[in-house]
Amino acid sequence: MTSVATAAPAISPVDREKTCPLLLRVFVNEGQHNLPDAYHRGRVPSSELQIYTWKDATLKELTNLIKDVYTTANAKDLSLAGTMFNFALAFPDKRGLFHFKEVGTTSVAHSGPDDKLTLSSCRLAIGDYMDVAVRVPAEDRRDRRVPMRRSGGERGYRARPY
Questions:
Q1: Quick one: three-class SS letters along the chain?
Q2: pLDDT one-digit tens code per residue, 50-70
Q3: What CA–CA distance (Å, rounded) separates 58 from 51?
Q4: Which of 2, 80, 89, 101 has the most CB atoms around it within 10 Å of its CB?
Q5: Block means of pLDDT (10 residues each) for the chain, length 162 residues?
Q6: What is the pLDDT of residues 24-35, one digit of tens each?
Q7: pTM of the entire structure?
């Protein structure tokens, strides 16, 4: 049996001076992705960012744009070391129901394998939405203690179980 290796088509860089950008509607949610029902019958989530970009834009570029805009709007510091951005494409099927396709995860602190993924390599079609789940690291809870009553009137402390 012979195997035929097909090379992936090389993606040529877009001349950003001559090519018109596309409008990418990005919906950011903290903790998890928006539910598919949030995109039902023309409705969209309220946390919309409209980004004009090109199909050769990387997920890391989008991360930096979202981080800058979303931080100033919500007064949260998204530049913390453990902040993760999970990207998913939201697109409708023939019946108008929306589906998600996970495309990659980026981090603010370090580079990863998905940083260089472009919108065209994620197979973004004009009209698709980008749904982004932002996971901000939890506070350091090792030093937090909760008072605990013991029998005999003594007052002790125990660490929170979570």
A1: CCCCCCCCCCCCCCCCCCCCCEEEEEEEEECCCCCHHHHHHHCCCCCEEEEEECCCCEHHHHHHHHHHHHHHHHCCCCCCCCCEEEEEEEEECCCCCEEEEEEEEEECCCCCCCCCCECCCCCCCCCCEEEEEEECCCCCCCCCEEEEECCCCCEEEEECCC
A2: 999 988 899 999 998 888 887
A3: 13
A4: 89
A5: 45 75 90 86 86 90 86 61 88 87 90 90 89 78 46 52 55
A6: 999 998 888 888
A7: 0.72
Bridge partners of residue 49, in order along the sequence: 26
Q: How far is CA 156 from CA 19, 42, 64, 144, in A?
A: 67, 56, 46, 13
**Dihedral pair phi/psi, residue 125, rounded to 5°:** -105, 150
Classify the phi-psi angles of 139: left when phi > 0, otherwise alpha if psi is within -120 to 50, otherwise beta: beta
φ, ψ for residue 60 (rounded to 5)?
-65, -40
Q: What are the C-alpha distances in Å from 94 to residues 9, 49, 71, 98, 129?
A: 28, 26, 36, 9, 16
Structure tokens at 51: 């980004």
CB 64 within 8 A of CB 132: no
Asked if 155 contacts 55 with a C-beta cutoff of 8 angstroms, the reply is no
> Are the C-beta atoms of residues 135 and 87 closer than 8 Å to each other?
no
